[in-house]
Amino acid sequence: MIKIAEYIPSNVTPLWKLAKQAGVDYAVGGLPLASDCFAGESIYDYMPLLRMKNRYNDGGFELSVIEARPPMDKLMRGLPGRDQELEWCIKLVENMGKLGIPVWCYAWMAVMNWTRTSTSTVSRGGSLVTAFNLADYEKGPPNPPVAEEDLWTNLKYFLDVMVPVAEKAGVKLSAHPDDPPMSPLRGVGRILTSVDNFQRVVDMVPSEYNTVTLCQGNFTLMTDDLPSAIRQFGKKISFVHFRDVLGDVTNFREAWHDAGKTDMYACLEAYRDIGFEGVLRPDHVPTVEGDSNENAGYSAFGRLFAIGYIRGLIQAVYR
Length: 319
Prior knowledge:
The chain is α/β, with parallel strands linked by helices and 319 residues long. Helix content is 38%, strand content 18%. It is globular.
């Protein structure tokens, strides 16, 4: 059975209690806090990760995915210092394995992470969502140029080293799509932008530990048939971001989970059909009345609607 998770920050916040009240038992987490580290320890070491995991356990959550990364820009761009970044990744995955944390979600977005041109686009009932408009974005200053082929070369270097580490540790490497999934962005190439490119990634180093984060908001901008893409990747899917958008890749906004462009019921049917038993979390929720838009897309109250909507769909699909 598919499992509902939430992104729970590694420091205790009111969201911890809200998530438990909504029936969530699985956490997607970040990296340890500085306060988790004693003298001489780094946030990738076993003991800080153990202290963080125990904090989730004490809050009633099973830590199922770490969705945070060491610095990786030099690694992605093939710059001097990349092997130090690779060592951090190795240490993180090895220690996740010792602690039984089964999935590491990583991204391969050089120079910038996910990006939006608006964090306060008005949606249903005056709620606020994030949005992206390529025409507005491209008017900004140029970025350092990054060639797509260099990203492919460096990803192969990364996977050649990391997949054997992941296999030994029992931790799945889970590639997250570029957001937005298009290339280039002000001179920066992107490669995790299409269903075909993701197929290339999983074929590049064949292993059950070289897997995909099926972030629906990105994948639905890549294909008009998201359930077919889910079935195509099948057991290669190790983690799901259950979200939706309106528009196309050059001009889109986040949507309420019941009001986007995607047949969410059909997607859950596809996850059922491939036997997906990992965790799924809502993502990029609207900011609703009474909540703060300080961390746009990740307000607390908007998640409650998403969790309830997903739980209802799951009960309908799996009954």
